[in-house]
């Protein structure tokens, strides 16, 4: 996994894409709220333009918030703040400026815990890069690639579309089911990709 240096002014887009492709499709993070330290894996670091070493050691939340697209930032930070204060989970779809300067779409899910005094003390969650399906929902139909994709990859595209379609529906149960299915398909894809990489190294 290539490491980014803090002083790097520019990062080659192809190098970042290769790094992202080399990772599992799901990245994870863990926020120690009292210390204001977010510990995240390399995929999350690259997506949020944070040095992977710093993310592994723990970086302030502001370092990650800075990468959120300006048009999405207030909405997302308000959602995160409210979820943390209430000790509940959230799901959000928004744009980030990744380490190569490319704007990517992500789907993030987080969950917060509160202590006995009702204060938030920890948050944790996962992030999925959904840029391909968000930017070209019907690309597979237009190019004829759909039949060549693995069933899990096709399912992931449909799950993302279903999740977005239900966003404005006032049905918490349906939203929860769509979230659960999306993240389970994402986990299966990550496991499949890890197995594929291990096999290619043998």
UniProtKB/TrEMBL annotation:
Instruction: Cite the SUPFAM superfamilies for this sequence.
Output: PYP-like sensor domain (PAS domain)
Q: Which GO terms describe its molecular function?
A: protein histidine kinase activity
* Superkingdom in the source lineage: Bacteria
Question: Is Transferase a UniProt keyword of this protein?
Answer: yes
Please state every residue range assigned to the domain named PAC: 90-142
Please give the InterPro entries that the UniProt record associates with this protein: PAS (IPR000014), PAS-assoc_C (IPR000700), PAS-like_dom_sf (IPR035965), PAS_fold_3 (IPR013655), Sensor_kinase/Photoreceptor (IPR052162)
**Record keywords:** Kinase, Phosphoprotein, Transferase
The protein in question is named: histidine kinase
